[in-house]
Design a protein that fits this description.
With 114 residues, the chain is mainly β. Helix content is 6%, strand content 32%. The protein folds into two domains: 57 residues, Chitinase A, domain 3; 49 residues, Beta Barrel (Thrombin, subunit H), CATH 2.40.10.330.
Length: 114
């Protein structure tokens, strides 16, 4: 994977652990949720009437893409299906999880000047 350091292109905890690494430097990184995708937000669960959801999307774990109020794409994961409503989880799929990475720096390129 290629990324630009200090540009918030990867999760903060991983970027912090990669800071100062040299070419061929290796590291096992274990990140708690707070340094990765955050904790599960209990306010990130929403229910909508079942009639508003296409039948083919009524499967636990399926993901729907909707357009947010500012035009951004928002992923909704089907969390629960009730008789009249569908519960969606708006949290990132990795929220609340401890993540482990085995990394090796293969190359370092100088950044572009502004």
């Amino acid at each position: 994977m290629t990324y630009t350091h200090a540009q918030q292109q990867i999760i903060p905890g991983l970027e912090k652990e990669l800071s100062g690494k040299e070419i061929n430097g290796e590291k096992n990184v274990c990140l708690p949720p707070e340094e990765a995708f955050g904790s599960v937000d209990p306010n990130g669960f929403k229910e909508v009437p079942k009639d508003n959801i296409p039948a083919e999307d009524l499967k636990l774990g399926s993901t729907l893409q909707i357009r947010g109020p500012r035009g951004e794409d928002i992923a909704l994961r089907v969390h629960e299906i009730k008789q009249e409503t569908v519960g969606f989880d708006l949290n990132h799929p990795l929220a609340g999880k401890t993540l482990n990475f085995d990394v090796k720096v293969l190359d370092i390129q100088p950044g572009e000047s502004d």
